C-alpha cells in the first residue's frame, strides 16, 4: 500500500511482482521521533500485559530526554501496579495512574489491554478520550468487534495501529539486543483508520520505530485482524501445537522412545527447521536433506499440504465472518471465573526429552507444508506479501518457536494474548486430527507429487530472500 512520510525515508520494494512501501527502523532515527510525534507530549499506555509492558518500556527508553512522557494506565486495583512500579512507572511522578485518567490526559492513547477488556470497556474508554487525541491499537480485534456490532470510532479522534509481529516478551528482548545491534527488534505493520489532523501516518511510523521495529509495512485494520487471528490459530500457535503432538504419538506408536519421539517431532521443528528457515528460507529445509531423506520430506509435504490448506481456509472463513471474535468475547466471561490451564500436560512435555539438532525429514515436510498452506490462503485473499510472510513465517521462527524450544508449548502459547491462547486450544486438536485421519494414511500410500512441484517454484522463496537483508543478524535471547 502506498504512503508517504514527512519525516522518514519510504522505500519501494518489489515482492513477487507486486510493489510495496516500507520504512526501515534503527536507533539512529530516534532523534527524529519528536518531530514525527507531532502534537504529542504524553503517550498513555493502557494495560500491562506482555505487549503493554514491552511497548511502554521500549517507548520510554527511545523517548528519553525528548520531553515526551510515557505514562502507564491501569484499572483500579490492578495486580500489575507493583510490577509497573518495579519497572520505574510511579504515581508520584505522574507516569502511572488510573487508566481512564491517563486516557483523558494523553495525546496518544495506546489501548493495549486484553481484547475482551477492550470490548467490555469500549464505551467508557472512548468517552474519556479528549477531542483531537489519537487512539492506538496493536491488534485489529476491536475494529472487528465494532464492525460486528455496526459501531464506529468516536468522532474527532484519529485511529492508528502498530502491530508487532511477535509476542511482547520478544519485543522487549530484541529491543534490548538492539543496543548492540542497531535495528534489532520485531517487524511491525501499521494502519490508519482515521486521520483528523494529517499526522496519523508519521505518528504510527514513529511509534513503530520507537518500539524497535527493524522495518514497518502498511496494512489495513481489517487485513491485520484477519491475518493475525488466522495465523495464531494456524501455523503460529494452534497448528504447530497440534502438529508436534500428533507426530509425537505417531513416532511413539512406531516404537520410538519418548526422548526420540520428542526429538523427531518437536525439537526438529523448533531447532534445525526453524533456524534454517530463519537464516536461509523455506526451500533450504528441503535442499539440506539427502536423497532418501528428501523423498521422505516430499512424501510428507505432498500428503499434508491440501488438508492443512483446507483447515486454514476454514479458519479464515470463521475469522472473516466474526465467529472467532464472538467466541473470544463469550469465553472471556468464563475465563474471568476459571483461568486457562497450561497446554503442556501431555506426555511429550511431562516425560523425558532430548534434542540432537538433527532434522526428521517427515516432520519437516509436514511443518513446511502447513506453513506454505497458510501463505497460500493469505495470498489468495489478497494480503500483501510483507504481511503474509511476517504472519506465516518470520513471526514463527524469529519470535514464537524460540520460546517453545526454550521450555515447552505453554511457554510459547501462554505468553500470548487470551485471543491467541483460546484460538490455539480450539484449533490445535483440529490439526492433530487432520494429520491422524487424512495426512498419515495418504503419506503411507503414494501421494500426488503436485504440491511439491508447486513448492519448488513458489514465489515465497524470492520474497523471503528479498526481505532477509532487512532482518538484523541477531537471535532472540529467551
Automatic annotation (TrEMBL):
Using the record's annotation, list all stretches that form the KARI N-terminal Rossmann domain.
23-219
Positions contributing to Mg(2+) 2 binding: 228
Which Gene Ontology terms describe the biological processes this protein takes part in? isoleucine biosynthetic process; L-valine biosynthetic process
**Cofactor or coenzyme needed:** Mg(2+)
| Binding-site residues for Mg(2+) 1, renumbered to this chain | 228, 232
What are the entry keywords?
Answer: Amino-acid biosynthesis, Branched-chain amino acid biosynthesis, Magnesium, Metal-binding, Oxidoreductase
- According to the entry, every stretch annotated as the KARI C-terminal knotted domain falls at 220-362
Q: Which domain of life is it from?
A: Bacteria
Report the pathway entry. Answer: Amino-acid biosynthesis; L-valine biosynthesis; L-valine from pyruvate: step 2/4; Amino-acid biosynthesis; L-isoleucine biosynthesis; L-isoleucine from 2-oxobutanoate: step 2/4
Q: What InterPro entries does the record point to?
A: 6-PGluconate_DH-like_C_sf (IPR008927), 6PGD_dom2 (IPR013328), KARI (IPR013023), KARI_C (IPR000506), KARI_N (IPR013116), NAD(P)-bd_dom_sf (IPR036291)
MF annotations from Gene Ontology: ketol-acid reductoisomerase activity; metal ion binding
Q: Which PROSITE patterns match?
A: KARI_C, KARI_N
The entry's family comment says: Belongs to the ketol-acid reductoisomerase family.
Q: Which PANTHER family match?
A: KETOL-ACID REDUCTOISOMERASE, MITOCHONDRIAL
**What's this protein's name?**
Acetohydroxy-acid isomeroreductase
Recorded source organism is Actinocatenispora rupis
Taxonomic lineage is:
Bacteria, Bacillati, Actinomycetota, Actinomycetes, Micromonosporales
Amino acid at each position: 500500500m502506498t504512503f508517504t512520510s514527512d519525516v522518514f525515508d519510504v522505500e519501494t520494494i518489489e515482492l513477487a511482482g507486486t510493489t510495496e512501501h516500507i520504512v526501515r527502523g534503527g536507533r539512529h532515527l530516534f532523534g527524529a521521533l519528536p518531530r514525527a510525534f507531532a502534537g504529542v507530549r504524553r503517550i498513555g499506555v493502557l494495560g500491562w500485559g506482555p505487549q503493554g509492558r514491552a511497548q511502554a518500556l521500549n517507548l520510554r527508553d527511545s523517548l528519553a530526554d525528548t520531553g515526551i512522557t510515557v505514562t502507564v494506565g491501569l484499572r483500579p486495583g490492578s495486580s500489575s501496579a507493583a510490577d509497573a512500579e518495579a519497572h520505574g512507572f510511579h504515581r508520584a511522578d505522574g507516569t502511572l495512574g488510573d487508566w481512564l485518567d491517563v486516557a483523558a490526559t494523553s495525546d496518544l492513547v495506546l489501548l493495549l489491554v486484553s481484547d475482551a477488556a477492550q470490548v467490555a470497556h469500549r464505551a467508557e474508554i472512548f468517552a474519556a478520550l479528549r477531542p483531537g487525541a489519537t487512539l492506538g491499537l496493536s491488534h485489529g480485534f476491536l475494529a472487528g468487534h465494532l464492525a460486528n456490532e455496526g459501531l464506529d470510532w468516536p468522532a474527532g479522534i484519529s485511529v492508528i495501529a502498530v502491530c508487532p509481529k511477535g509476542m511482547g516478551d520478544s519485543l522487549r528482548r530484541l529491543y534490548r539486543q538492539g543496543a548492540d545491534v542497531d535495528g534489532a527488534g520485531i517487524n511491525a505493520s501499521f494502519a490508519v483508520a482515521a486521520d483528523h489532523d494529517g499526522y496519523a501516518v508519521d505518528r504510527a511510523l514513529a511509534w513503530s520505530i520507537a518500539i524497535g521495529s527493524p522495518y514497518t509495512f502498511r496494512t489495513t485494520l481489517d487485513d491485520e485482524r484477519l491475518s493475525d487471528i488466522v495465523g495464531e490459530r494456524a501455523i503460529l500457535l494452534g497448528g504447530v501445537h497440534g502438529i508436534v503432538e500428533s507426530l509425537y504419538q505417531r513416532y511413539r506408536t512406531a516404537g520410538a522412545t519418548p526422548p526420540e519421539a520428542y526429538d523427531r517431532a518437536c525439537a526438529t521443528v523448533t531447532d534445525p527447521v526453524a533456524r534454517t528457515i530463519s537464516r536461509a528460507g523455506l526451500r533450504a529445509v528441503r535442499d539440506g536433506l539427502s536423497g532418501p531423506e528428501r523423498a521422505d520430506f516430499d512424501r510428507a509435504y505432498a500428503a499434508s499440504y491440501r488438508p492443512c490448506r483446507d483447515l486454514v481456509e476454514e479458519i479464515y472463513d470463521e475469522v472473516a465472518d466474526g465467529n472467532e471474535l464472538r467466541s473470544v468475547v463469550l469465553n472471556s466471561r468464563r475465563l474471568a471465573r476459571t483461568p486457562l490451564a497450561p497446554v503442556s500436560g501431555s506426555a511429550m512435555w511431562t516425560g523425558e526429552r532430548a534434542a540432537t539438532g538433527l532434522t526428521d525429514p517427515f516432520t519437516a515436510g509436514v511443518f513446511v507444508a502447513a506453513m506454505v498452506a497458510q501463505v497460500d490462503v493469505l495470498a489468495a485473499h489478497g494480503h500483501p506479501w510483507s504481511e503474509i510472510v511476517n504472519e506465516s513465517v518470520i513471526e514463527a521462527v524469529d519470535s514464537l518457536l524460540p520460546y517453545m524450544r526454550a521450555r515447552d508449548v505453554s511457554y510459547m502459547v501462554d505468553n500470548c494474548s487470551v485471543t491467541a491462547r483460546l484460538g490455539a486450544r480450539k484449533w490445535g486438536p483440529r490439526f492433530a486430527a487432520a494429520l491422524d485421519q487424512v495426512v498419515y494414511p495418504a503419506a503411507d500410500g503414494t501421494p500426488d507429487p503436485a504440491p511439491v512441484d508447486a513448492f519448488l517454484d513458489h514465489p515465497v522463496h524470492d520474497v523471503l530472500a528479498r526481505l532477509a537483508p532487512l532482518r538484523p543478524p541477531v537471535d532472540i535471547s529467551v
